[in-house]
Specification:
It is built from 14 helices and 13 strands. It is an alpha/beta fold and 409 residues long. The chain folds into two domains: 2-70 and 232-400, Alkaline Phosphatase, subunit A (3-Layer(aba) Sandwich), CATH 3.40.720; 79-228, no CATH class. The chain has an eight-stranded mixed β-sheet with strand order 9-8-10-1-11-12-2-13, with helices on both faces. A hairpin with a 5-residue loop joins strand 3 and strand 4. The longest helix has 21 residues, at 182-202. It is globular. 50% of the residues are buried. Bound molecules: zinc ion (2 copies). One zinc ion binds at residues 9-10, 55, 303, 344-345.
Length: 409
């Protein structure tokens, strides 16, 4: 058996999206409708009813991992997503290159949206690792002003506040312990020393002298936020004995896939944006399934369009996803493949953010008893045989593939 899970980020919507229809209803989706027609349909609460999911917590829950147990913040997944090695107990932060004055007043949270030279700045920041004998300090620049910081050592805590004040014109006061314990106090002190030291290492860096000459803001400090700790998670391989691959563009999703033990496969033109090449992602997944049992494909674009409150762009993107699903359906062996298609949450146009509304889901394949649903959207899914489910799409999908251990005798 082979299993495929396609998640269209922010797929779900509301009748207020577009002339009384959700974007899924307004879009022309012949392939998704065909998939719905040959499968079992239902409504997915990504975490559970009454919870507004983040993409990260929703994905964990859909993969069958309780986010209330395994999620401490997105830093861990960002770190994995940019290719860093993350060990159990590591404290991970997202960081920004920012611009401060000499008195540490914050002038720009993104250092003028710096695009070039961040690799050289990262190299200068490798010196941070010499600050402590018993704490490793690992920094990696990612895209534009973004980066990831890892603290590795004993007696550290993720229970500290953001050092990033999230607004300009104020002095950076640094991170503070959120609980009254020595580990949190110590970690806050370390982060605050890193901020000071990063300023010392970056302020006269040739990249910044060059930027100043051109009238650009210098990237003269790093501001850590979103402290999170790596908790041990069993991989899908450990849980189900299968080999899985993931095709995703965005760092967060690559990170989540690595956290559950999926091998990352790169697809040409997979950008994590609305201009992504969906068909190429499907091709890479199908190719990967020659050696693997399970393929996870993440498609981001619909969520981005909905955050921009652009219904027409979201509809167009859903139609692009539909083409990708058509390609997938034409190129799998239906005698031995189960496909699940859903979203990680709804992102209604008027709301412009993730809502607690459920999303439609379909699972098709040889072991599925199909229902009467003939279209794929929020309304038709209400009549589906799967009913309402909370997260756990991967265990349900794997159940159809006979990969589950028996519970009891
Ligand atoms: Zn999402
Ligand atoms: Zn979103």
């Amino acid at each position: 058996m082979k299993a495929i899970l396609v998640i269209a980020d922010g797929l779900g919507g509301r009748p207020t999206d577009f002339n009384g229809k959700t974007c899924l209803e307004a879009a022309s989706t012949p392939n998704l409708d065909e998939l719905a027609g040959k499968g079992i349909n239902g409504i997915l609460y990504p975490i559970r009813p009454g919870v507004r999911p983040g993409s990260d917590t929703a994905h964990l829950s859909i993969f069958g991992y309780d986010p209330y147990k395994f999620y401490t913040g997105r830093g861990v997944f960002e770190a994995l997503g940019v290719g860093m090695e993350v060990k159990e107990g590591d404290i991970c932060f997202r960081t920004n290159f920012a611009t401060i004055k000499e008195d540490f007043t914050l002038l720009d949270r993104r250092a003028g949206r710096i695009k070039e030279g961040t690799k050289e700045l990262e190299n200068a920041l490798h010196k941070l690792d010499e600050l402590y004998k018993d704490v490793r300090i690992i920094f990696k620049a990612s895209v534009e002003h973004r980066g990831v910081l890892i603290l590795r050592g004993r007696n550290l805590s993720h229970q500290i506040s953001d050092a990033d004040p999230h607004k300009t014109g104020v002095k950076i006061e640094g991170a503070k312990p959120l609980v009254d314990d020595d580990k949190a106090k110590r970690t806050a002190e370390i982060v605050n020393r890193i901020i000071k030291e990063s300023y010392r290492l970056l302020k006269d860096h040739p990249i910044n002298l060059e930027r100043k000459k051109k009238g650009a803001l210098p990237a003269n400090v790093i501001l850590p936020r979103g402290a999170s700790i790596k908790i041990k998670m069993p991989s899908l391989k450990e849980l189900y004995g299968i080999k899985g691959i993931a095709v995703a563009g965005g760092a967060l999703y690559i990170g989540i896939a690595r956290a559950v033990g999926l091998e990352i496969r790169k697809a040409e033109g997979a950008t994590g944006r609305a201009d992504t090449n969906v068909i190429n992602k499907m091709k890479v997944a199908i190719e990967g399934l020659k050696q693997a049992d399970f393929a996870f494909i993440h498609i981001k674009g619909a969520d981005s369009c909905a955050h921009d409150r652009d219904a027409e762009a979201k509809i167009r993107f859903i139609e692009k996803i539909d083409e990708g699903i058509g390609y997938l359906m034409d190129n799998v062996d239906w005698g031995e493949t189960h496909i699940a298609f859903t979203g990680d949450h709804s992102t209604p146009i008027a709301f412009g953010d993730h809502s607690a509304d459920p999303v439609p889901i379909v699972i098709s394949g040889p072991n599925v008893v199909k229902d009467e649903v003939k279209e794929f959207n929020e309304r038709s899914a209400l009549k589906g045989g799967l009913g309402k489910i909370n997260g756990n799409v991967v265990p349900i999908l794997f159940g159809y593939c006979d990969w589950l251990e028996k519970y009891g005798t």
